Each structure stands twice: as C-alpha cells, then as structure tokens.
Amino acid sequence: MSKNTNKIKKIGVLTSGGDSPGMNAAIRSVVRASNYYGIECSGIRMGYDGLINDMVVDLGPRSVRNLINRGGTELKSARSEEFRTVEGRSKAAETVKKHNIDALVVIGGDGSFTGGTIFQKEQGIPFIGIPGTIDNDIFGTDFTLGYDTALNTVVDAIDKIRDTATSHNRVFFVEVMGRDAGFIALNSGIATGALDILIPEQKDSIEDLFSSFENAKQKGKTSSIVVVAEGEKLGGVYDLAKFTKMKYPEFDVKVTVLGHIQRGGSPTVADRVLASRLGVAAVEGLMAGKSNVMAGMQSSKIVFTPIEEAIKKHNEIDKDLIKVADILST
Ligand SMILES: Nc1ncnc2c1ncn2[C@@H]1O[C@H](COP(=O)(O)OP(=O)(O)O)[C@@H](O)[C@H]1O
Ligand SMILES: O=P(O)(O)OC[C@H]1O[C@](O)(COP(=O)(O)O)[C@@H](O)[C@@H]1O
Ligand SMILES: [Mg+2]
Question: 109 lies in a domain?
C-alpha cells in the first residue's frame, strides 16, 4: 500500500479544455483511489471556471457509479478566460482554501497544464495532470485519454465512406481533427487504406498529392480516400478538393469533415484502462509528494513527467508509420 507521506486529506479533481472520451473513467478512478487511501475527494465543475466560481461537489465512491462507460465529462469542461488573469486565479485559490482542498488533479491538455502550473507557482497548490485530449499531442505519454476512442470512431466512419467511394468511383477528402498534430490522421489513414495522408508535421506539396493520384490511376485504382488532418499546412479539404477537380475534371470529388463526432462516444477498452491507471497514479503521486508533473504511460509503465516538459516537448511522428502508409498505398 502506498504511503500518504504528504498528508493529503482532500483532493480536488477537474476536467478542462477540449473534452475527450475516457475523462469520466479518469474522474471515477481518482475518486475511487482517493477513497481507497482514506482521502476525501471533491469534483470541480466547469474546469477552471468552476474553481473561480465555487462550483464544488463532494464525490464519494458511489457517486461515480455508471461512469466508466460514458463519453464526455460529468464534471463538464470549459475554456476559462478569467483563469488566465491573476485576479481569476486568486479567486480560484479562495475556493481551494474554503473547501480545504490540499491538491488538484487536472484532467486536460497542454493549455490546462499551463494554467495548472502557473496556479501552482502563484498559490502553492500542488497538482498533477492527466493527459486528456483526442489529439495525442502531449509529451510524456504514449497515448492520451480519448485518442484510441477517437481513432476507432474515425476508422468506423471512413470504412462507411469507402463503401460509397467504391460504389461510385469517387475521390474522398476526409478531414479529421488534429489542430497541430497528425496522429489521428496518420493512424486512421493506415487503418483504412488511404491513398494519401496529409499531416501538419510533414511538408506536403500539391504535386505530391497529384502524383499519388497519377500512381493510383496507373495501378488501376478506381476510388481513393485522402485523409487530411485539420491542421494540415497545405490547405483545407475544400481547397484541396477544388484544386484536384481543376486538375482532374473527370474525378468525382467529395469532401467529408468528420468534426465533433470524433470527440464523443463510449471509451474503448484501451482508454478505460489508461484512464483507470492514470487516475490511481495521480492520487498515489500526490500522496508521495509529487507535484507539477503529469502522470503518463510509456511502454505500459506509469511515468511522471515534469509539466513544463509535457507542455513544451512534442511526440515525434513515427517515420516508420509514414513509410508503411507509403508502401501500402501503392
Ligand atoms: N497561459 C495560461 N494561463 C492561465 N491559464 C491558462 C493558460 N493557458 C491555458 N489556460 C487555461 O486552461 C484552459 C484550457 O486550455 P485549452 O488550451 O483551451 O485546452 P487544452 O487543455 O485541451 O489544451 C484555458 O481555457 C485556460 O483557462
Ligand atoms: O470545437 P473545439 O472544442 O475547439 O474542438 C476542436 C479541437 O479539438 C481537438 O480535437 C482537441 O483539442 P484540445 O487540445 O483542446 O484537446 C483539436 O484538434 C480541435 O481543433
Ligand atoms: Mg490543447
């Protein structure tokens, strides 16, 4: 049994920034692990806005029943402009003191961690982050909460698009989420047999895209799917579709933007297990006196990464995956 060397009596948990499937499972894990170790737990609703406006609820082990399988976040999430100000954060600190909260678990992305670390430095309130975002763009963990679920949602949708693409000999541009990161695009593209995959991390040119189409024509392909990450630098899906149609008037070109369906749904096994492990790790980390770190999973082991590193560094796109995608699209 882990020791509560840091004498934590009460933990506050909140979800912040873009929601992702698995956040509920992480809340449940933090609450149940706290209870297991004899620590009280409070939920803060609406992210940092809830901390500023005293939206605090007591959470016991039974109050998180029926949560592990649900998408979204029961505590709700927010993007709080007020928390970006010193005044906002000092109001938030008053709430923390009023409820005798000793430490915070922040489930969110890089922005939420930036807020958490500033708060910790200004107000001395320990916190541990749990990476929750579908984009998988946080350093210090192989996977973020929601990424696996989002990938499965995307693959399910593109499989369906393939049916009509094949039936009508169409070219589909499918936009997936990833404001700055191509993890969803690259992996879903491989999993769905895309002709080409465009991601922000790679410098793509329209000529490269056209040469993919030329190759496809030569090889006798009759339909194609091109997966495009939202943050792709070459241009948005509508422009890409327009340029393609100008170059190949004979193509029946269609665009699908998958949008927010990628953010919802019941979390996959991988996300539920990840959330469960990271929730326990965050509670045990706080008990052991850790703060200003993110609990992540690397090679199936729990790893605590300094929050500054988690925010500033980036997981590199695996070049091998790009090669696999290139080889298999021939
Ligand atoms: N520099 C900052 N100072 C204080 N709070 C911040 C800062 N950056 C982000 N935050 C807080 O974290 C919230 C979530 O950040 P955001 O970037 O929207 O999402 P995510 O955590 O998913 O990356 C912001 O709305 C804000 O309240
Ligand atoms: O409509 P919203 O909430 O801005 O969400 C869109 C964003 O969600 C994301 O999938 C994840 O964003 P977060 O960093 O906030 O988790 C981005 O790729 C996308 O731009
Ligand atoms: Mg972010």
Answer: yes
Q: Say which ligand is closest to the CA of 231.
A: 2
Query: Residue for token digits 């996959």?
Result: 268
Best residue among 76, 136, 179 to mutate for probing ligand 2's pocket (most ligand atoms within 8 Å of CB) is 179
pTM score of the predicted model: 0.96
**Cα(328)–Cα(330) distance, integer angstroms:** 5
Distance 192 CA to ligand 1 centre (A): 33
- Number of structural domains the chain divides into: 2
pLDDT digits (tens, 9 = 90+) for 75-97: 999 999 999 999 999 999 999 99
Residue 89 lies in a domain: yes
User: Do residues 88 and 99 share a domain?
Assistant: yes
Identify the residue whose C-alpha is closest to ligand 1 atom 5.
115
- Cβ of 232 closer than 6 Å to ligand 2, yes or no, is no
Choose one of 245, 263, 281: the last residue of a domain: 263
Range of the domain at 36: 10-146+267-312
Q: Which residues contact 71 (CB under 8 A, 6 or more apart)?
A: 21, 24, 149, 264, 265, 266, 267
> Rounded distance, CA 240 to CA 229, Å?
12
Tokens representing 22 are 């698995």
- Which residue has the least CA distance to atom 3 on ligand 2? 18
